[in-house]
Design goal:
Layout (H helix, E strand, L loop, with lengths): L7 H4 L11 H7 L4 H13 L1 E5 L5 H16 L4 E3 L6 H7 L2 H11 L3 E9 L15 E3 L4 E7 L10 E3 L23 H18 L5 E2 L6 E6 L4 E3 L11 E8 L3 E3 L26 E2 L2 E2 L4 H13 L6
Antiparallel strand pairs: 1-8, 2-3, 3-10, 4-11, 5-8, 5-10, 6-7, 6-9, 12-13
Helix pairs in contact: 3-6, 4-5
The structure holds 2-oxoglutaric acid.
Length: 307
């Protein structure tokens, strides 16, 4: 177990603790440090919480820069899954302090499945990850964002809308797309305006995540967030995004799912270099052959040294 929550996976109900009734009672019974409990409360309240391990991650930040910098010399904007060749990313992704906080906040064991490195601000449109990655039971996914340098306001900081994780999940159908018609064009035309409309109607205000080097922000799957505008194009904003799922769930891509077909995922497990089978109440569920073949091909073509 990585958490102070003995048997958390076995006992957990069908919702993440941060979304369920009785969080305070659960935290009171959990054998966990006060800082971890405060983290769970922040995440429940705002949908984003900060982990500050002091100087602990600074050396890993330096190593991640050194191990990934070459990608950006050739003009890459973001680098997908550099963890496969970058031991420092794997060390952050499996850092016991991060895993323990996530396990406490969700009541299940987390596993990191994807990484993204950025050299500059992403200027990504406002979205919630629930459109791209969700799970059954719902909500068992989160984003983890590590500042590889101090974030400056002109560099396009991560922006988020505190409290918006409690809004109903916005799907492509909810944004007005007919079932099975999602494309990047109607995503831009429908989803972006729809989420901004909802935020405005609900009175949610944006906040910038002004993190210092080595600080980590964790966001809940349904939190509205994105990359704010870069004011000074010479400014860098080096950062690492990690996506986590949790044990014993079915993993899927809502945006590509239809009423008739759930677009299941076979996520990688950064801790082992293998993948995690989707499960429902402990029993494996199937994944489409196409997904399985893609995972095998990916695994065979990308060498992942073991720890
Ligand atoms: O880092 C950013 O600017 C935004 C990242 C983001 O929105 C995401 O990874 O989902």
């Amino acid at each position: 177990m990585v958490s102070g929550v003995e048997g958390a996976s076995a006992r957990a109900g069908s919702a993440p603790w941060i979304e369920a009734e009785g969080l305070e009672d659960r935290l009171a019974r959990a054998d966990a440090p006060e800082a971890h409990k405060a983290f769970a409360r922040d995440l429940a309240r705002d949908g984003l919480a900060i982990i500050d391990l002091g100087a602990e991650l600074l050396d890993l930040c330096r190593r991640i820069d050194a191990e990934t910098g070459h990608h950006f010399e050739s003009g890459a904007v973001r680098v997908h899954d550099a963890w496969r060749r970058c031991p420092a990313i794997r060390e952050v992704a499996t850092h016991p302090e991060i895993l323990a906080r996530l396990a406490l906040a969700y009541g299940r064991e987390p596993f990191p499945f994807q990484s993204l490195n950025f050299h500059r601000g992403s200027q990504q449109d406002i979205h919630a990850d629930t459109l791209h990655f969700d799970a059954e039971p719902a909500g068992f996914m989160c984003g983890v964002w590590l500042a590889l340098e101090d974030v400056r306001p002109e560099a396009g900081p991560l922006v988020y809308y505190p409290g918006s994780h409690r809004l109903p999940v916005l799907t492509m159908a909810g944004a007005g797309a007919a079932d099975g018609t999602t494309t990047s064009a109607n995503y831009n035309e429908l989803y972006g305006p729809a989420i901004l409309r909802r935020l405005a109607e609900g009175g949610f205000e944006p906040r910038l995540a002004m993190l210092r080097k080595g600080q980590v922000a964790v966001w809940a799957a349904n939190l509205a967030h994105g990359g704010s505008k870069i004011v000074d194009p010479d400014e860098t904003r080096r950062s690492l995004v990690l996506h986590y799922y949790f044990d014993d769930c079915v993993y899927y891509t809502p945006m590509l799912s239809t009423q008739a077909r759930q677009a299941r995922r076979l996520p990688a497990d950064i801790a082992t270099g293998g993948w995690r089978w989707p499960r429902r109440e402990g029993r494996r569920v199937g994944v489409p052959v196409k997904q399985l073949a893609a995972a095998i091909a990916y695994r065979l073509t990308r060498h992942t040294p073991r720890f």
